[in-house]
Amino acid sequence: MTKSESSASSALPDADQQAANFKRVREAHQSEVAEDYVELIADLINTTGEARAVDIARRLGVAHATAVKTIARLQREGLVSSQPYRAVFLTEKGRELAVHSKRRHEIVVDFLRAIGISEKTAQRDAEGIEHHVSEETLAAFERVIRAESLAKKPRPTLADSAKEK
Amino acid sequence: MTKSESSASSALPDADQQAANFKRVREAHQSEVAEDYVELIADLINTTGEARAVDIARRLGVAHATAVKTIARLQREGLVSSQPYRAVFLTEKGRELAVHSKRRHEIVVDFLRAIGISEKTAQRDAEGIEHHVSEETLAAFERVIRAESLAKKPRPTLADSAKEK
DNA sequence: TACATTTTATAGCCCGTGCTATATTATTTA
DNA sequence: TAAATAATATAGCACGGGCTATAAAATGTA
Ligand SMILES: [Mn+2]
Ligand SMILES: [Mn+2]
Ligand SMILES: [Mn+2]
Ligand SMILES: [Mn+2]
Q: Where does this protein have compositionally biased stretches of type Polar residues (chains A, B) (predicted)?
C-alpha cells in the first residue's frame, strides 16, 4: 500500500485539527437534546394537536421528570413556552429549529434507505447520525438520494417530458 | 405524494420503537468517550511510542485534569492501565476496543470521501458519525467504498489480471 | 358531586464530563 | 548539583441529564 492510498493507518492528524474535531462533536451533543425535543414536539402538535409532557417522555424513553426538567431548560433558552399544567408549545425560534432538524433527519433517513439500509436500521442510525452531519455532507447525501431515485424509476428521462401532448 | 412514498412527513413512528432508538443513541454516547480515548491512545503509542496525559488532553481539546479523570474511569473499567507519573497503556480489552473503533472510524472516513466529501469535512463528520453506525450500515458503507474505488480506477477488470505474463 | 385516575410539578439523588487553581513530582537546562 | 520548566495529581466547582419518590392539580367516571 503506497503512502497516498486510503486508510492512512499511521501518521496522526494535526493536533489542533483533531482537537477542533472533537470539540465540534461535543458541541453537537449539547444542541442534540434540544433538536430532538423540538422536532418531536412539532410532530406531536402536527399529528395529535398538542405536545404533552407524558407523551414527550414516553417517546423519548425517559422518565417524565427528566422530560419536564429538560423542557424547563428549553424554555430558559427560548425554544419552548409552557404554562403550569398546560401542554408545551414552540416559540418562533423553536419552530425554526424544528423545521431544520426535521429536514435534516429526513434527509439522513432517506439517504440510508438509498444505500440499501433496512427501514428499521435507517430510523435507528439516523437518530444519532443526524447531529453530526455538516452542510457539505448533507448536500452529498441529497445528491445520492437523487441519483438513486433516478436510477430506480423506469427512466423518466427528458424523452418522457417531450413525449406528452 | 402517495402515502407509501418517501419522506413520511406526518404519521409518527411507533412510540416504543422511537423510544428504543433514542435510548440507543444515549447508550452510544456512553461508550463514545471510551472509544475515542482508546483509539487515540493506540495511535499515540504506535507513532510516538507512548501515550502521555498531556498529549491525550491536547489532541482531545480538553484540560489535562479532565483527561486524567477520564483515564481513571477507563482504568476502573479495565480498558487502560497507568501508574502514577507514568504514561498510559492499553489492556488487552482496551486494545481490542481500539482496533474495532479504529476500523470503524476509517470505514466512515473512507465512505465520506467516496461520496465526494472533502478531506477536512470527512475527518470532522466522521468523528461524531462513527459512534452511531450499526453493523448493517457499516457493511453498506463498505459496499459503497468498493463500488466507488472500482468505478474510479482505469478498469482493473478481470481482463487486466489475465493480461499479465 | 365525589372518587379514581392521569398528568404535572418538585425535591433530592447519582454520574459523567467539563473547568480552574493549586500542589507535587519529573525532567531539562544552566 | 541547583534552579527552572514541564508533567502529573488532586480538590472543588458547575452543569446536563438521567433516576425515584412524593405531592398537587386536572381530568374522567360512577
Ligand atoms: Mn436525534
Ligand atoms: Mn431526529
Ligand atoms: Mn469519535
Ligand atoms: Mn453523537
A: 1-10
Confidence (pTM): 0.89
Residue pLDDT, tens place only, B116-135: 999 999 999 999 999 999 99
If you count residue pairs, one on A and one on B, with CB atoms under 8 Å apart, how many are there? Answer: 140
Of the candidates A21, A58, A120, the beta carbon closest to that of B124 is on A21
Q: Check B118 against A124: CB less than 8 A apart.
A: no
Nearest nucleotide (C1') to the CA of residue B86? D8
% of residues, chain A, pLDDT over 70: 86
Q: Which nucleotide is closest, CA of B82 to its C1'?
A: D8
Domain presence at residue A34: yes
Any idea what the CATH number is for the domain that residue B108 is in? 1.10.10.10
Q: Are the beta carbons of A29 and B29 separated by less than 8 Å?
A: yes
Residue B16 belongs to some domain of the structure: no
Q: What is the residue-level pLDDT of chain A in tens, covering all 165 positions?
A: 333 334 445 689 999 999 999 999 999 998 999 999 999 999 999 999 999 999 999 999 999 999 999 999 999 999 999 999 999 999 999 999 999 999 999 999 999 999 999 999 999 999 999 999 999 999 999 999 999 888 876 655 544 444 443
User: Is B13 among the domain residues?
Assistant: no
Exposure letters A63-97 (e unless 16+ CB within 10 A, then b)? eeeebbebbeebbeeebbebeeeebbbbbeebbeb
Whole-number Å distance between alpha carbons of B133 and B140: 10
Rg (CA), chain A: 21
* Strands A80-82 vs A88-90: parallel, antiparallel or unpaired: antiparallel
Residue B18 CA to ligand 2 centre (angstroms): 10
